[in-house]
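User: Structure please.
Assistant: Input sequence and predicted structure:
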Amino acid sequence: MKIRHPEKQNKPINPIKKKPEWIRSKLTNSKEFFLTKTIVNKNNLVTVCQEANCPNITECWSKRHATFMIMGDTCTRACAFCDVKTGKPEKLDPYEDIKIANAVKKLQLNHVVITSVDRDDLSDGGSNHFKRVIETVRLKNPNTTIEVLTPDFLRKGDSYKKILEANPDVFNHNIETVPSLYVKVRPGARYFASLELLKNAKKNNKLVFTKSGIMVGLGEEYNEIIQVMDDLRSADVDFLTIGQYLQPSVKHYPLNRYYNPDEFKQLELIAKSKGFLLVSSSPLTRSSYHADEDFAKLQQNRINNH
């Protein structure tokens, strides 16, 4: 008689841990949510809210806040934490800058966040395209402040300077995790290259606010998080975001643990003591979560510090 063993291939690769009570996104069916969705869809735009399966999408879209993702929906990297698809991207849309500028106007945004996939296939990493989008958005929406969340432009030389030439109000590049986890979590990137990018962005444009974010719950040590804070301050980063890593699927990097709200508060206090102009630390904090309100705080804090 044959003994049947459970088939290993039927088991999830990385089982998803049940979410605690404090991880709850706000649901809504408001008119504003559907207005935002309609404008995004009609203009055939890509948002990181949808592509990265952001837990805050309903809350943000209900306030007409959307983070536009340019240069397509396909990334040339395969970060283990990210839900954006990987593959060979399509050609750049030559009218994307106009589409986004029009959407910003229709949504009547006071502050807009523009991000992108990694485009290692392009000689400049897409920096010229990024610059054109910023310039067209500003031309059509002169009173809207612009925040960019950029790739690292690894091995693309000074390409990133093109973005800074367009004078965004906030230059964001996420460090994502601690150095010891980069090989597994962010294999296509380099920790110190990301730090250097942030440092050079500030050197290049003293007036721009620099910003970076880290996820927790991937298996990092507490003292490693503190070291990242120190490294970011050494790079003269103004604004730090700290959020909970939420494993998108069984194929993604395994979640090690959930941090509780008190731990996030403690991390916020430590970061503030290190001299960041602003710190946002909570389970659902994401790079562009409450970005418009945070920009107003950044401006006020800079005034207060002078």
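The CA atoms of residues 233 and 276 lie 7 Å apart.
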